[in-house]
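Appendix B. Worked example

We walk through a single record from start to finish. Start with the input: the chain for Citrate synthase, Stigmatella aurantiaca, length 390.
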Amino acid sequence: GLMGYDPAFLNTANCKSAITYIDGDKGILEYRGYPIEQLAEKSSFLEVAYLLINGALPTPKELEQFTHLVTHHTYVHENIKAFMDGFRYDAHPMSMLASTVAALSSFYPDAKSIKDEQSRSIQITRLIAKMPTIAAFSFRHSMGLPYIYPDNDLSYVANFLAMIRRIGTATYKAHPTLEHALDVLFILHADHEQNCSTTSVRTVGSSEVDPYSAVSAGIGALYGPLHGGANEAVLRMLREIGHISKIPEFIKSVKSGEGEKKLMGFGHRVYKSYDPRAKVIKRVADEVFEVTGKNPLLDIALELERIALQDEYFVKRKLYPNVDFYSGLIYEAMGFPVEMFPVLFAIPRTVGWCAQWEEMVKDPEQKIARPRQVFVGSKRRDYIPMDKRT
Ligand code: CMC
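Next comes the structure step. The output line below is what the pipeline stores for this chain.
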């Protein structure tokens, strides 16, 4: 029969969704109808998480209950710790995160009951709650430092920062500006409709596997340099450029590379104008740098953006800075090594993955994902015995 050929689904809607709206030409991003700029300014990450998952802003009581639930599921089974100890000393924390989240499915066999609303709700709570713990453990492991258990008296972000930073038994108090900045970054990264990792979660989840296995596939997708690895690549690129004077030469090499070499942190499949998240991030960066001191790579980034936005190559292709262009600079100023950047993306995106996974599970039109292909291989031919082959 007639079949559409649409590699990488550039032109195919894979689902109906009521969660996130993007207008790529106008640079609009909305969660459940609320503009990202308003959420970033007025809301908090757990409130946004509630919104994305439940479809409406919580009442004060609902937010309190949700916060209580998430806060009291932050601990992981001691054997998860032992599992993580098995990784090589130099294991990439993102690889540890993907494997450990997949391993969670063996700790919660009840997660297989995906048609049961209550079971779904508890798995989603566990995923959102345990992600910072596993992320922090993966960081501590890679640094050769002892794991720090969650502190349920702290906020979601402050607890994460404490598990990352605490030395010995001294309490770690995150700087309020940095705590707020990370909370805003988490809001900006919470969902982004049918991106590569979310599509992976939906695809794997469509087989009706448990959500830990599905989310682990999403983490795998997010590990790639074209997706969640982009902010790490931006920093490596800025370091490689090294000095403002080297920018024109670098831009020239990108343009002559025939798509081989890219300006990392630029361009987006959907946004053909300025990424609205990048605008918010630029403001957050200013606040963070006031506390941490300016990241010396910022000047290179600003000048690179200025030159690229005037260059015909980038203008013609509608290539603008995306969310990752400045986020890495902030993470680095906050003391995170580049290996942690995709992990810092995965923590908040877990909310989007869970919201999208549950929406898919509840959708009566959803079937197992099973695309077709355009076959371009050999026509039928007969087997040739080994001794007849030359
Ligand atoms: N630098 C230089 N040229 C570029 C870039 C770039 N960053 N991005 C796209 N182009 C060129 C590309 O070579 C092509 O040129 P031509 O028409 O001459 O062949 C044209 O622009 C269209 O690009 P495309 O590859 O068809 O666009 P796409 O929608 O397939 O790719 C993208 C989107 C984000 C993968 C790509 O822009 C890219 O690789 N950017 C750099 C990596 C990056 O910053 N990724 C983060 C994305 S945002 C956060 C996230 O979702 O994880």
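Two observations about the output. The first strand starts at residue 20 and ends at 23. The CA atoms of residues 24 and 376 lie 34 Å apart.
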